[in-house]
Amino acid sequence: MTEELSTKFNPTEVEAGRYEKWVNSGVFKPSGDKKAHPYSIVIPPPNVTGKLHLGHAWDTTLQDIIIRQKRMQGFDTLWLPGMDHAGIATQAKVAARLAEDGILPQDLGREKFIDKVWEWKDEYATTIKQQWGKMGISVDYSRERFTLDEGLNKAVKKVFVELYKKGWIYQGEKIINWDPKAMTALSDIEVIHKDVEGAFYHVNYASADGSIVLEVATTRPETFFGDTAVAVNPADERYAKYIGKTVVLPIINKEIPIIGDEHADMEKGTGVVKITPAHDPNDFLVGQRHDLPMPNVMNADGTMNELCGADYNGLDRFEARKKVVAEFEKMGILVKVEPIHHEVGHSERTGVIVEPRLSKQWFVKMDQLAKQAMDNQDTDDKVNFYPPRFEDTFMQWMGNVHDWVISRQLWWGHQIPAWYRGEEVYVGEEAPEGEGWTQEEDVLDTWFSSALWPFSTMGWPDTESEDFLRYFPTSTLVTGYDIIFFWVSRMIFQSLEFTKKAPFRNVLIHGLIRDEEGRKMSKSLGNGIDPMDVVEKYGADALRWFLSNGSAPGQDVRFSYDKMDAAWNFINKIWNVSRYILMNAGEMSADQVSSALTKVADKTAGNVTDRWILTRLNDTIERVTEQMDKFEFGVAGHILYNFIWNEFANWYLELTKEVMFGEDEAEKDVTRAVLLHVLDNVLRLLHPIMPFFTEEVFEKMPNTTGSIVVAEYPVARPEFNDEKATDGVALLIELITAVRNIRAEVNTPLSKKVPMFIKSDYAEFLEGVAPYITRFANPSELTIAKELKAPEQSMSAVVTGAEIYLPLAGLINIDEEIARLEKELEKWQKEVDMVNKKLSNERFVQNAKPEIVEKERAKLAAHQEKFDSTKARIDELKK
Questions:
Q1: Nearest C-alpha neighbor of 420 from the set 408, 436, 433, 434
Q2: Taking the model in full, what pTM does it have?
Q3: Dist CA 132 CA 138 (whole Å)
Q4: Gap between the Cα atoms of 184 and 195, Å rounded
């Protein structure tokens, strides 16, 4: 006997334990069928700093939808999971945890501190994998990777050494972005610019004898200790005469030269700028041109150093600013303080204001790598972006990219494979032989190793690795638009350099998840949503449905609990439909279902509603598959929703009751077969989006075997297509709907029988479906004819192919009925005009597919028919 579903849908019960069964059954491993086309995805690795957030849940949901569908379609699928060590963020988290016990990383030393970080990694990696399980993602855990594992470390070293040998990795002193809290360098894209309140501080710098007074303006007066010149434009008649002379730095009484340089803008401010080469990127270039000293006046933690004098040494930079300004005011050289709003860089990881700082770092020279990546977009190996507009984002960034600072002053990460002995520098995959060598203390930017992810996880640098040969390049990457610069771009140029291939064929870009008011989720606003809390309340399937249907590719989506309620209600609807079908299905085998369906296709069994729903199912399969292939999951979901809720549940299931409550057992078996077939296909179509619920129902069906995870994905079966049945049931549904609307307008419930007259050229068909009309419209008498006279005092409706009249004496007002019909006439006129406008557009007619044009012409004919019939009825009532 068919195992029944519980009377109430409970997502917690449905999802409990199922993920572990899937993992243990091995259904997520590659098929091993080398005849099947490979389809591979590498998961965007979450960092091990904490729990999954909604954005990562979105990534994994969309990728899981893709891989589940491809697995069902017979592809040899590989979805490789992994995690990112997240150098800055993870080290900061572990340091903060140690600080709670009064321990500093320096107290432990590098090796023992790293041991503590590995403990953190193991703890949070376990948490993340549990959350992956709750989301139901179908990854192959036997291939799981971590950006600091032995294989990836080998790849990182090889890439570093090869780029160094080519001269594309180098050491240099430059102004870089410095995070005073993490005490490390940052790349440009790790800096977030925020609008903050600030000020221009106008200060007079004077010569020793007081004959020269130059007014400079700065937003960072605390850096004046590092000034090594004052610049004026050589073409500026006001100041050109002072070039070569000197002024005295206040407080520390140090003479610095007045230089001529075009960096000083004559039209901006006073035309005089102070030059602080170690603390400003533009000043650094001026300093290089004029061979100026470049003293660094700040410590790594953002405090002032000994070059600032005893009163300022060790003082926080912002406290120093206040003290310097107060001293300038006391000295009488502070001209004014001008409040401003300006953009200031903040660390993406720690949130503190970034300090431009002269520092010796390791860099990747980007000109050739960027050129290769851009040139590749003109080849057959190009990366396809969805939506395409993000290719422009990628190209613009690559076209304006700066050299990439890759060294980080951390302990957690890939230690740079460089060694020093005196003035000697050695770079290699292994430590140099001999005594006295010391390895570089710095580690590499986390994105350096993440950039190698698509091929390093496949076994590279072993280019004969089975996985590398089989699954690289990968098929599709899914990620948010905010990570194009950080990760997508770097994967592309590193992969092209080292494998001569693009790392993936497709990049699907999604947006950001915002709160109900459209605000970005953040800790400061307190509007963040934990996806696990959502799963706990609604189940993973409901969250996955929301995430896949929330927006179009590339668009942001607003999270709301109303949408989650709607997702849960949809699943509950299908659950109840499934219960009804399974309760009435009996024990039909797959062969019995197949035999019955063959008879329906041959028209030797079944009725018009059976042939209609099978035709509609075919159309749904084709359209959903087409949209899924284009990554338009929202459109696919909309198509599925309309078919399941409206056509299958609200109409076909109700229509089947005419048979199921009847006496003909043969007819019942056919209807059971159709119900089971449609439900089976609905579950398979939904499975990539709702894995837990669909497996629960699938395994309880009488005619299915195995797991739905590896069941075949639906394909349309042309033998089921029946246009006449489609048109006929469409007319039946439109007719029943129109009758219900008329009854509602005059407050006549369905329980009250009223006469019903139908005039139609399809009278013979309507006579055949009269039992359905009777069941759903409840007429006291039903008259169907090709020609008939409209009864007096009747409400009417015009549908495609028929006119309906309900005599409602005493309930109808002729003037009101005419007014209602005139509104209908106006509606049909607009419809006719709209289609006419489209068909009169030559570009549309010439460029659209012939079947689309023909569909519009058929639509025009139907609208025109309704317009004509409505007008005729109005004229009749006015006589």
A1: 436
A2: 0.83
A3: 9
A4: 23
